[in-house]
Amino acid sequence: MAEVEETLKRIQNHKGVIGTMVVNAEGIPIRTTLDNSTTVQYAGLLHQLTMKAKSTVRDIDPQNDLTFLRIRSKKHEVMVAPEVPLIPCNRKCSSPL
Amino acid sequence: MKKQSQFLWKVLPPEEQVDTEEVKESVEEVYVYKPPIPKPWVSLGSEKEIEEESVHESTVRAKYKISRERRQFGAPIKFGDYNASSVKDSYIECTAYADKNFTVKQLEKDIAIQVIPILMDTYTQTQWKFPRNATTQYMPREFSKEERETLLQSKDLKDFLNSVSLSVEAALQQNEIMNVFIDDWKVLAEEEATFGDKTDSHLKEYQSFTDLHNIKDKTITCICWHPTIYGLIAVSIAERLSYEERVQFSGKLLLQPSLILFWSFSDPIHPQLMLQSPDDIFCFRFCPSNPNIIAGGCINGQVVLWDISAHSERIVHVKGSGSTSKKAVLKPIFLLEPDSNKDAPYVRHCAVSSIEYGHKKLVTDIHWLTDNFEVNRMGYAFENRSGICCQLVTCSIDCTIYFWDIRPTRPPPIPTDKKKEETVEVPHDVPSTFLHLDLSWRPHIRITLAKSGTTLDHCPVKLSLRNESLNYQVQDAQILQQKAQIAGEDPYHNLESGLAKILKPIEDYNTKFFVGTEDGEVIYTDWRMERDHDSGRLISQKPLNRYAVHDGSINTVQRSPFYQDIVLTIGGWNVAIWKEGVSQGPLLLSACSTKMYTSGHWSLTRPAVFFVGKEDGYIDIWDLLEKTHEPAHTQNICITSITYIRPWMFSTRQQFLAIADYFGTLHILEIPWTLSHPLVNEVQSVYHYFDREVSHLKYTEKRKEIRAKQKTELHLESEKNKSKAVQKSKEQLEAELRMNYEEYLDFEKQTLGNLGVIPETDRLSSSFRDLI
């Protein structure tokens, strides 16, 4: 429990982070640092988008899977990290520099 | 040929043998024809091939001879028909049959198959018999608190977060390293297409105005551009006389009118409008809400108001009159008819302040308060009830600052009484906008700046209030609408309407302002009045800060048009820039120049640029981004000292600088592109520069403290060292003395021994003793 808290706190305290949300597989928010209405809105919209992105990636290559989704807009950037079952991936698919 | 020659030789008769011998000699070789001799054939195996290829009959052909009997030769024949199939064995046939040996069975076949959906087109029509509106409302699914708790405790979540947090943090770090929201294209473009030469920073002369009728031995004291009309500028004229001379010529001066002239770009010789005032005007301003109202301060301490609404049409359409007067310009001035249509009308002032209750001496500065607030008798700020600029502040060298209100303080007097009391007859063509104020106008706040310690007061020369816009900027349409709503129709002619509303105070309004004095001091004070405990009267507050950095009278105290808390003060021989709130001192204090500074102004478009005029007719252009220790450019404008500078912006490409000189000529110069067009991020760069200066000031303060501490420490240490040194030297001295004495004793012995005074035995024994 403490580990979960600590991880979430660490992410939230990063510079420039406005809010953090943890959402279950159906899109229902479990934990959030934003207010209720915003959370619900983001959860609903992002869940659908993530599902769509995931299905797109899988349609192109069934052996592939979505690892991270970043949406950059004029004002903000939204980062979505879906739960990914472990896939042996070669250097090509991982991108953090 | 050889053959022929042979032949010839054979055939020819022997007589010709002699001729042919020559021919024979030339042909040495004799070709003898030999016919081919048959040889036996040698077989090389070719007959075998021929044998193989040739076709031979393998069987012997059978020969049959069929003939009839002899006796039937020639006998009569009978031919008859009969069906071949009816008689058995009449013919033999070879029926064809499908021989299985020769049939080929197809084992593989290529067939293409396509699947298509079964399509069916059909349609239906609904009948909306009973229209009914329906709505749905939904709520998002949420977990209850207990469910959330359980989920948070679950191991799955932990594992998930552990696996995912790494990539999230990597992504966040990427964003931190590089700013992802930069548009590289925009940043690449540093400047838009520049207009004109980039390096050109010379102010170009555009026009200059001199009135030959009215200006003789006169000087210009103040310039104001008309806020809305293009090319219209107003200047106030005053006599170029000192105080004693004024007293001497006072009789003559009363006859000459004191004027404010309106010049237009299209007509450099005739002023468009002339405003009359009771005495020389030293400062004036257009009202920001209504450019037809002008307020000015006189040399005798009176504040004067004009209303030129009646002539506003005339000055707007100046260009038309300019084009028709082309012919007139060619005529010399003395031929012009004095009362032609083009002659500028004299406009009399609308109202003057009361002589008893107004200023006693020259009014040096006048400002309109912005139309978002108004001030009551105590100096507290309230929301403006009228929606227009209705209050003024003036300062004068009788050491006072007065706040005035142009709205009537009491109901206008009954007409019958007024007729009896009135001594001054108001001409009928003067508008009655401010008739309620005429000669009875008094300020509602009086502030004196007391010098601490002495009974003398500061003499304010210039003021600078917050929220004042230097160029009457066009505000948001919304704000203008709101103000218009509050003001109502034609606010300046219905000034009482605003007074009926209730005062609403504004919280925390900044009521502090900067004052520059005649002695060169910059004072920061509050205009709110305090109630004296002893007498119960209202007294003004003591100045919060006083700085004496200038050596001569201050001539400019101005806020920057870009930053509300940066103030420029010019006085004496140097320039200073201050930030409101920073009390350690000026952010920038220039070195003293060789000539005295007489006027100055911030640039309206570039936050780092300001113009300073000197007493020798030179103008210094300072650019804080280029150099901060000296002006960036200097340029000569005229031969006498510059009395006033005022820039104005008509469009992004046209910016003018109006410079008035001591001899009464008004020069209009065009500011080049480099000085009028701000650089990219100039506002931020200059702001950072000021921030750096503030931190520099703070740092110097700290260093001063540290230095002071260090000094005291050093002092203490040196004292300690001195005392220690004294002790040490005492001991040292003693030791030294002892050593010296012992050396002396040895020396004494030696010399005595050398001289032979000491007996040998003693010497030896003493030496033994020494050895021991």
UniProtKB/TrEMBL annotation, chain A:
Gene Ontology molecular function terms on file: dynein intermediate chain binding
A Pfam family it matches: Robl_LC7
Residue ranges constituting the Roadblock/LAMTOR2 domain according to the UniProt record: 4-87
Keyword line: Cytoplasm, Cytoskeleton, Dynein, Microtubule, Motor protein, Transport
GO biological process: microtubule-based movement
SMART domains per UniProt: Robl_LC7
Main location: cytoplasm
UniProt-listed InterPro entries: DYNLRB1/2, Roadblock/LAMTOR2_dom
Compartments where located: Cytoplasm, Cytoskeleton
Keyword Cytoplasm appears in the UniProt entry: yes
Organism per entry: Phascolarctos cinereus (Koala)
GO cellular component: cytoplasm; cytoplasmic dynein complex; microtubule
Functional summary from the UniProt entry: Acts as one of several non-catalytic accessory components of the cytoplasmic dynein 1 complex that are thought to be involved in linking dynein to cargos and to adapter proteins that regulate dynein function. Cytoplasmic dynein 1 acts as a motor for the intracellular retrograde motility of vesicles and organelles along microtubules.
Family: Belongs to the GAMAD family.
PANTHER family named in the record: DYNEIN LIGHT CHAIN ROADBLOCK
Summary of subunit composition and partner proteins: Homodimer. The cytoplasmic dynein 1 complex consists of two catalytic heavy chains (HCs) and a number of non-catalytic subunits presented by intermediate chains (ICs), light intermediate chains (LICs) and light chains (LCs); the composition seems to vary in respect to the IC, LIC and LC composition. The heavy chain homodimer serves as a scaffold for the probable homodimeric assembly of the respective non-catalytic subunits. The ICs and LICs bind directly to the HC dimer and the LCs assemble on the IC dimer.
Protein name: Dynein light chain roadblock
Superkingdom of the organism of origin: Eukaryota
From TrEMBL, chain B:
GO biological process: cilium movement involved in cell motility; inner dynein arm assembly
Location(s) in or outside the cell: Cytoplasm
One annotated Gene Ontology cellular component of this protein: inner dynein arm
Coiled coil: 716-750
Keywords: Coiled coil, Cytoplasm, Repeat, WD repeat
Source taxon at top rank: Eukaryota
TM annotation in the entry: none
MF-aspect GO terms: dynein heavy chain binding; dynein light chain binding
InterPro entries recorded: Dynein_IC, WD40/YVTN_repeat-like_dom_sf, WD40_repeat_dom_sf, WD40_rpt
Chief site of localization: cytoplasm
PANTHER family attached to this UniProt entry: DYNEIN AXONEMAL INTERMEDIATE CHAIN 3, DYNEIN INTERMEDIATE CHAIN
Protein name: WD repeat-containing protein 63 isoform X3
Organism: Phascolarctos cinereus
Annotated gene: WDR63
